[in-house]
Design a protein that fits this description.
The chain has about 425 residues and is α/β, with parallel strands linked by helices. The protein folds into two domains: about 220 residues, 3-Layer(aba) Sandwich (Rossmann fold), CATH 3.40.50; about 170 residues, Rossmann fold (3-Layer(aba) Sandwich), CATH 3.40.50. The chain is about 40% helix and about 15% strand. The protein contains 15 helices and 13 strands. The strands form two sheets. It has a seven-stranded parallel beta sheet with strand order 3-2-1-4-5-6-7, sandwiched between helices. The protein has a six-stranded parallel beta sheet with strand order 10-9-8-11-12-13, sandwiched between helices. Helix 12 links the parallel strand 11 and strand 12. Helix 1 packs across helix 15, helix 2 packs antiparallel against helix 3 and helix 9 packs across helix 14. The mean pLDDT is about 90.
């Protein structure tokens, strides 16, 4: 049984982790049962109906929910969906600061905890009638793990809690104006999950794993990173190639990422080279305006949020792929997008800490770099070299990162 708030048609990279695990568990002879939220009542920042084709053979049970995030979104943006936070907390206006305070202190561990009783009720019905041996809860939202605590009390299941991202140590918690009491309550819930689960899954080793082991010494930990779907990468053809040097960015882009220094470098290079920059993903219009203003000689194209298979085609059409690590999250995560970048064999320029887990990963590639935000000279060298040679990024032992390989590792580790 997999209990996951995010599930197709929800979009974004977070949903893909257990979507692909379920897909390949089914192909490898297991019978996954997914409990998720009814998309008509969920608070999804983006949707991608194209992902539904990956889960067509999976048994999926959907529940109702209570969603205060819709009110949060309306309060901060005037729209029930557009203001749903994604990888950042806006605190510029008094309304945004008030909303952040409410979110951080009245919805612990998160504003989707209203789904817990609905998911718990559905899971109990299945467990009472069927022979389910293994239970997965995956977060964010980390309130999902509270379902695991209750089910573990009543049923003999092998429960593993999957931390796709950190919980109390996540980088944006510092913007939520939490009181000491709220912080203490959140830490207590996290420790309860860490200690009562039969095992903990994480996506990266390094600092995140050290933090979790410190909180729950003696617990079973298994690192299963995000990966890429080999079938999709091979089957999807590149989108139309551009005549100019083509730079591509896909995914979330916020002010919590250091994108501005690289814009200065691209602008400098564009004075003597024809450059086309394509962006796709959930990106605020204010940031798109800033990019256009910073790159007067570059043809900037913003596609908005696009289907996953179209994003792969776009990546494969690029001469250079860009990535920006979230500030404060250098050692906390390696996104599935970054693995897909690697799988395309297109050169990668990422801005962040070279000594981070993601930086060490990129260092293995022949043409992939993690560069500090203030090192504009190195950014310029990379960009000029790629404009000149248009090389491919070769990566050793790439097959270990395929979704099917990672599913086999999951089976060996917890089944």
């Amino acid at each position: 049984m997999i209990i996951s708030y995010y599930w197709p048609p929800a979009g974004g990279s977070g949903v893909q982790r257990w979507m692909y695990f379920a897909k390949y568990l089914k192909e490898l002879g297991y019978e996954p049962i997914v409990i998720t939220v009814d998309e008509k009542k969920a608070s999804y920042p983006v949707v991608d109906p194209s992902l539904l084709r990956e889960t067509a053979r999976i048994r999926i049970l959907k529940t109702s929910t209570w969603e205060p995030l819709r009110w949060y979104s309306f309060l901060t943006s005037g729209d029930a969906q557009k203001g749903i936070p994604q990888a950042e907390v806006k605190t510029l206006s008094l309304v945004e600061k008030f909303a952040a305070f409410i979110r951080g202190n009245y919805f612990i561990p998160d504003a989707r905890k209203g789904w817990v009783p609905f998911a718990l009720k559905e899971a109990r019905k299945v467990l009472e009638l069927e022979d389910v041996n293994h239970l997965i809860t995956t977060g964010p939202p980390h309130s999902t793990h509270l379902v695991g605590i209750e089910l573990k009390k009543q049923f003999k299941v092998n429960w593993w809690a999957d931390f796709r991202d950190p919980w109390t140590d996540i980088f944006y918690n510092k913007f939520l104006y939490r009181t000491t009491k709220s912080i203490s309550k959140d830490i207590s819930l996290e420790k309860e999950v860490l200690k009562k689960a039969d095992g903990i899954l994480t996506t990266v080793a390094g600092k995140l794993l050290e933090q979790l082991r410190f909180k729950a010494p003696g617990q079973n930990f298994l690192v299963i990173p995000n990966g890429y779907d080999d079938e999709l990468i091979k089957s999807q053809k590149a989108a139309n190639k551009k005549k100019d040097f083509h730079i591509v960015y896909t995914g979330i882009l916020t002010e919590n990422q250091d994108y501005k220094p690289l814009l200065e470098v691209i602008n400098k290079c564009s004075k003597i080279n024809k450059i086309h920059l394509t962006l796709a993903g959930n990106i605020n219009s204010n940031i798109i305006q800033k990019i256009n203003a910073a790159l007067p000689n570059v043809k900037v194209e913003y596609l908005g949020y696009i289907a996953h298979f179209n994003a792969i085609a776009l990546m494969k059409s690029a001469d250079l792929l860009l990535n920006f690590i979230f500030k404060g999250a250098d050692n906390q995560m390696i996104s599935g997008k970054l693995l897909e970048y690697i799988a395309t064999e297109v050169p990668i320029l990422s801005i962040g800490n070279p000594n981070s887990q993601a930086g060490k990963l990129l260092a293995r590639g022949s043409h992939s770099w993690m560069v500090e935000k203030n090192n504009k000279l190195e950014m310029e060298v990379v960009l000029k070299n790629q404009i000149k040679e248009k090389a491919r990024n070769k990566f050793p032992k790439l097959s270990q990162w395929t979704r099917v390989s990672l599913t086999k590792k999951l089976i060996e580790g917890i089944f």
